[in-house]
Structure prediction request, 303 residues.
Amino acid sequence: MRRGARDIAAFLAVWRTFVTDEQTAPTFAAPALDLTDTQSYAANPTGAQLDADRVSAWFGTNKVLDRVSLAMPPGTVTALIGPSGCGKSTFLRILNRMHELVPSAKLAGEVRLNGLDVYAPNQPITLTRKRIGMVFQKPNPFPAMSIGENVVAGLKLTGTKVGRSQRAALIEDCLRRASLWAEVKDRLGDAGGSLSGGQQQRLCIARSLAVRPDVLLMDEPCSALDPTSTRRIEETIAVLRNQVTIVIVTHNMQQAARVSQQCAFFLAEQGTPGRIVESGATKEVFENPRDPRTADYVHGRFG
Prediction:
């Protein structure tokens, strides 16, 4: 299945989870994360601390990640870089429990949001994904829904009720934060599918922001876009990093250098699972890497 088709399938599966909430979390001995605090966004305007601790992952018997630990602080864009097949996107999906959507998937380790484990046994998946949003590689707005309806679509699924006046204000706020308001304010009733690819991706960002996440995960959000649309997405990321914690997967080294404050270099060598070779401040990783493999990758000598 092509990557874009997999993204759409994954999104629809997440959407069904919000509706049914029938999935069962893996068992981890950790306290439940309180995701019912509706004041979280106001109390944590720069996002939340997200930590992965010794995360390993399997698909069936194939181990794809080995003991990955990474701190992703609030107010920061963390870029995940590395060759294809080294586990970056798998790691990203583990952060908001999308890894569980694959029947053969297993994992070990912990993912903590503000110090509490999102895989705790009594932790609802829907509330985890409300706090940790996802933007996929291929834009996936609901094509038949209007632009405005797309923005607030997630509110119904999370049980959030807003009045008519609040709804209009929320749509404007999210579209402004996604750098899309000026382009669509006079056509909110038009179908989301009528927008250009870059506009659709920013609409998806606005939809993610409507439920007030603390963390926004982005899986190669610009890979299918033209340079102008890519620039607009990067400008949006620069604004949003002061509001939410952002983790982005990218194969574009120039983009990683432009948008992130810290990065982690993933690598899977000779059939071994993916792991982090080096992480740290983006400037240091790019200009003064500690590991020669990192230097080779960021300077384009392989990958």
In short: Strands lie at 50-59, 62-72, 77-81, 105-113, 116-117, 132-135, 215-219, 245-249, 262-267, 275-281. The chain has one domain: 3-144+213-298. The chain has twelve helices and ten strands. Residues 35 and 95 are 15 Å apart (CA to CA).
